Amino acid sequence: MRWKVAILTASDRGSRGEREDTSAQVIRELVEEEIQGDIIEYRVVPDEMDEIMAALIEMTDYFQADLILTTGGTGLAARDVTPEATLSVIDRSAPGFAEAMRMKSIEKSPRAMLSRAVTGIRGSTLIINLPGSPKGVHESLMAIIDVLPHALSILTGREQEHADES
Ligand SMILES: Nc1ncnc2c1ncn2[C@@H]1O[C@H](COP(=O)(O)OP(=O)(O)OP(=O)(O)O)[C@@H](O)[C@H]1O
Ligand SMILES: Nc1nc2c(c(=O)[nH]1)N[C@H]1C(S)=C(S)[C@@H](COP(=O)(O)O)O[C@H]1N2
């Protein structure tokens, strides 16, 4: 079985259909190319705590994603609540991913320190917050992508299936 990955975009504009969700496209490409994962669910919600929480819970408990990658809502603006919603649904914190993303990203853009992204575990699902911009998504995800397969193997007790296996 390949890694089951869900994408959650938290964006007021995106949820109103006012902007093409290129950040989610960046995530999809990196997941498919770099870790050969399958996108099993994709959703866009406004920057509302209850809607983000509900989507995260459904993606873990119902869709049983191995990995959820969120984009947006991690900054300092009043409506940025993705980290709080994530903290409300996780059982265990896994801060190393967020630390690595900020550390690597700050070398390229000092503004990366504005992201309050968190990473944690609900059941056997790893939840990772990414910033909203496509550039922020790419830089952040590339900082951790090499470690993700090993992390998911430990968390799920499975290995990623290779492309030539059924
Ligand atoms: N899902 C996305 N797809 C493409 N670009 C995005 C996305 N989210 C954010 N961006 C880009 O990153 C910039 C900064 O993101 P920020 O979260 O402040 O967006 P916003 O438009 O102010 O808020 P919201 O996305 O909640 O409506 C935006 O101006 C936009 O150019
Ligand atoms: N790697 C990386 N991280 C980044 C950025 C970036 O350009 N590259 N932009 C930052 C900026 S400008 C903001 S405001 C925060 C929060 O973005 P968000 O509210 O869209 O999640 O992410 C930061 N993280």
TrEMBL record:
Identify the pathway.
Cofactor biosynthesis; molybdopterin biosynthesis
Main enzyme class: transferase
Q: Which one GO biological process term can you cite for this protein?
A: Mo-molybdopterin cofactor biosynthetic process
The family database entries (InterPro entries) matched by this protein are listed as: MoaB/Mog-like_dom_sf, MoaB/Mog_dom, MoCF_biosynth_CS, MPT_Adenylyltrnsfr/MoaC-Rel
State which Enzyme Commission number(s) the record gives.
Answer: 2.7.7.75
Q: Keyword Transferase, does the record have it?
A: yes
Q: Which domain of life is it from?
A: Bacteria
Span of the signal peptide:
none
UniProt keyword list: Molybdenum cofactor biosynthesis, Nucleotidyltransferase, Transferase
**Claim: Magnesium is one of the keywords in the record:** no
Question: Which GO-annotated molecular functions does the record name?
Answer: molybdopterin adenylyltransferase activity
In terms of CDD domains, this protein maps to:
MogA_MoaB
Q: Where is the MoaB/Mog domain?
A: 6-151
Free-text function comment from the UniProt entry = May be involved in the biosynthesis of molybdopterin.
For this entry, the protein name equals Molybdopterin adenylyltransferase
